[in-house]
Write a structure and sequence with these properties.
This protein has 312 residues and is α+β, with helices and mostly antiparallel strands. Helix content is 35%, strand content 23%. Strands 1, 2, 3, 4, 5, 6, 7, 10, 11, 12, 13 and 14 form a twelve-stranded mixed sheet that branches. Helix 1 packs antiparallel against helix 4 (58-71), helix 6 (165-175) packs antiparallel against helix 8 and helix 8 (218-232) packs antiparallel against helix 9 (237-249). The chain is globular.
Length: 312
Amino acid sequence: MATANAAGAADAFLATLDDSQRKAAVHAFDDEAQRARWSNLPVSMVRRAGLRMGDLKPAQREAALRVLAAVLSKAGYEKVNAIVEADEALREGSGRGSPAFGRDEFFVSFVGKPSATAPWMLQYGGHHLAINATLHGTNGVLTPTLIATQPAAYVRNGKTIRPMGAENDLAFALVNSLTPAQRSQAILGPVFRDLVLGPGRDGKTIVPEGVQGTSLDARQRRLLMELIAQWAGIINEASAAPRLREIESRLADTWFAWSGPTAPGSAAYFRIQGPTLVIEYAPQNLGGIPANHIHSMYRDPTNDYGRKPTGR
């Protein structure tokens, strides 16, 4: 049902476009170059393919966002919107202007024709965001997906928005729940200032490090799963539920690693790695504020771009 709803929303969006826009929006499913054409950098530095949101008419833009809402969970859609609005806050406050930042500078495209049965992929991204969602029948795969934010917090309508606040808070709760023996395993010697498996690193692997799931108690395992769900739960619930069950079934073989201070609010890198999972979180000090510029990556080394269900 989720894929059918998403395909229906995609068809409705495509119906609002003219022929040249449709040609720009839809790529062949075997277009591997387009599949891997995503980045963390501003669009002024790495141009995205597809349709620029700022070039769409209001009705077209709303239709594009309905596709995104159908593919993602409610919480996932809200997170993505908060990231986009953080970029708008950056545009408003930086003085650098709209060519690099802002809600207009995000792009939407499809790899494969949207279908309820045949495989296709939604790409939506720009600065600090790359949603790569592959749908095939009842299967939905969100890896690889990059979520990031700058600033880490901003104010809209009198309310403070933290696009990645839950990720930050849960991670510090987990690391500070560790015993001294667990900490000695979890905390790494090297300092990581950015993602190891970020854009352009498809197919690369790293050796698991840190404290293993077998060493965690029940409360710590719950915290770890809550933390993982901040990424795995971005996709619609029908796709997220089996994915989370798969991850939890292999939690004993999942590792949690930390690099940096453990005081809440500090700029500290962490990584979660299991047989079918790699999550990285890499914050940076910006403007004298620790962790005001955050990058994160969500991958499945066995199934990035939905290679399993699509048979590719």
